[in-house]
């Protein structure tokens, strides 16, 4: 099922989710680095990584919802997409709470509750990320109709099924 929100021929959502996924996961790693080293700089990096992750998540959610609304009702993809989308809203809320809990602390040092809430967000993101993979790799959401190993370039304006101009010609890209 082809994505509705694309840039340069490719779905926007998988492009954008690297920011929230990477930054929020990095914040948990920096929290861990602080715990083992007691170095305050790590808590500051973690604090701002959460800010970037939350902003990136809000931006990435927009094409996610656009693609979800285009999934036909009554399908498994629609249900999985809903759990994935709402689960990721939950991920963002958990990290927002963790951020609120540390924002007034000297050096943004997280207390035990802030660490636990971030940890819960990290685990939930693992589950929702798996569901995202299920959506794309198993259910074909965001994949062009008739995608195949000889499909023409996404920028060519031709459908993926139009292999005539690729197979046996000099056009390689
Ligand atoms: C921070 C928020 C989010 C993250 C980190 C995230 C993560 C992901 C990941 C990892 C994939 C698989 C991408 C791939 O394998 O190429 C995916 C796909 C998908 N996600 Fe999300 N997601 C987020 C929010 C949302 C929301 C709010 C929705 C709305 C329902 C949504 C709907 C979808 C859909 C429909 C797909 C299938 C691929 C596509 O349409 O581009 N996602 N997401």
UniProtKB/TrEMBL annotation:
<feature type="region of interest" description="Disordered">
    <location>
        <begin position="152"/>
        <end position="173"/>
    </location>
</feature>
<feature type="transmembrane region" description="Helical">
    <location>
        <begin position="47"/>
        <end position="70"/>
    </location>
</feature>
<keyword id="KW-1133">Transmembrane helix</keyword>
<keyword id="KW-0812">Transmembrane</keyword>
<feature type="domain" description="DUF2231">
    <location>
        <begin position="9"/>
        <end position="144"/>
    </location>
</feature>
<dbReference type="InterPro" id="IPR019251">
    <property type="entry name" value="DUF2231_TM"/>
</dbReference>
<feature type="transmembrane region" description="Helical">
    <location>
        <begin position="82"/>
        <end position="101"/>
    </location>
</feature>
<dbReference type="Pfam" id="PF09990">
    <property type="entry name" value="DUF2231"/>
</dbReference>
<feature type="transmembrane region" description="Helical">
    <location>
        <begin position="12"/>
        <end position="35"/>
    </location>
</feature>
<feature type="compositionally biased region" description="Polar residues">
    <location>
        <begin position="152"/>
        <end position="167"/>
    </location>
</feature>
<keyword id="KW-0472">Membrane</keyword>
<feature type="transmembrane region" description="Helical">
    <location>
        <begin position="113"/>
        <end position="132"/>
    </location>
</feature>
<protein>
    <recommendedName>
        <fullName>DUF2231 domain-containing protein</fullName>
    </recommendedName>
</protein>
